[in-house]
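Provenance and format

Records in this collection were gathered into a single text stream. Each protein contributes a sequence line and a token line. The two records reproduced below are adjacent in the stream.
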Amino acid sequence: MNFYMKLLRNKKEFALFMGIVSIISVNIIAPLITCFEAGFHFFVWQDVLTVLPFIWLSVIVFVLLTYLPAEKMTAKIVSKEDSFNSHIVVNALCTAFFNVYYINSSRNVDWNTFNNIRTYSHVFYRWLRNFTISLFVGMCIAQPFARFIIFKIHLWNDKKAQI
């Protein structure tokens, strides 16, 4: 029942789901990570808000890039007989992993970064922090809200189809 009612059935629902998750994620994750980097000040938050539309577009691109690899990795980890919740949790883990990997690798991290590990030890710290923030927001805030909206749309469409 959960698979049918809470998973996406068509491309319009995928676009709606991605829009909801990305808007919620961008409005929470981007200011949080920026404030951890630059300090929790009002002017830092204002600066993030001015570039938020560009960050949102890049999030859409990263999600589209990581969607298929995350689905393939999820399929290798869980079987079809596993519960709905296990599929959702593993998919959220894989999606957060790939998104943070792509975001961090797009900051021009090359082999020279790892040559002087003491100087660049912050790379691992930042990756772990960004992964945790992304996972928490995605799994506990954005996806449950988006799945609730999809569930309500499915209930409404099924009721309309019965009439």
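Adjacent record:
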Amino acid sequence: MKGSIERVRAVLHGQMPDRAPLYDLLRNDAVVSHFAGETLTVENAAQVVFRAFEPAVDATRPLVRLPEHERTEVLPDGRKRRFFRWTIWDEHVAYADSAAYAAAKRAQLDAYDPSWTAERQASLERSLESITNHRRRLGEVFFFPGGPGVGVQGVYGEIGFDHFCYYMADYPDLIDELIEMSTVQTVNWLEHLPPNHGIEAVMIGDDVAFKTAPMLSPKWFREHYFGRLARVTAAYHRQGIKVLFHSDGNLNLVLGGLVEAGIDGLNPIEVLAGMDVGDIHRCHPHLFMCGGIDVSQLLPLGTPEQVSEAVHRAIDAAEGRIMIGSSTELNNEVPLANYLALREAVLNHPY
């Protein structure tokens, strides 16, 4: 849409845009087909999906995923990878017990060398090339590339959260070392960005909360997470990059610590988990938000009128500090009429 990139930049820098930007991931056949002007298929997805973004939203983030034929593949290590229409799920890595996990991870830590290598440089250059390619294909849409972060989700995501809790109970120092290694890798990566990296803002993510509360205690976050997040955000800021932090769930008990660690923005503002746009803005007025419209009940099951009302409330409550979108991603359960109502409400609510 006309002016999208400048509109988003205004929000990033604490200025008042002409209207709230629209921010979302499009993983919805009807919405993509509508805005691309062509029925989406797996075969034409590489062109149609990207074409839909520019008329539909002002900003988006990774992954700009393409639909897949549903199937199951076997990975080299024997785990199954399941492809659904818009998502991919890998089986967790299984270890015989916590001692086996500890032995494998200790070997990984002992072998880790933080030195910058030609292989790491080539990987960084591929990442920058991918970002440039996404920007080119998205046109007048502000793109938040995914950036490395503290990496807690990477540690528990490999094995599943249940096993993560068992292993952390048995080997807390080992888990801490793994998170520290991930943090060091992130800072190292950022320190080697070229001066012309061209990245204005990134989304970094650790899903660290359930719908009721953080996954781990506030004490754990104070002792193991916030300090590392502060190192990561400082490294981004040294490169002139704004940090949008992503976590689903109810972050209220740890949000103050996340803000003190230096995040600039928060996504996705999961409403039915207890996150409230107005409360967040009153407590942290400099923070920009992305999301804020419930996609678990309201967008799939509500009426267009109810969607429109929620949009107007969120825009008013944030006072220019929000990019409106779904509270996770625009999935296939959302009727086209409800997304059109969301978009129309934003376009008709100038500041």
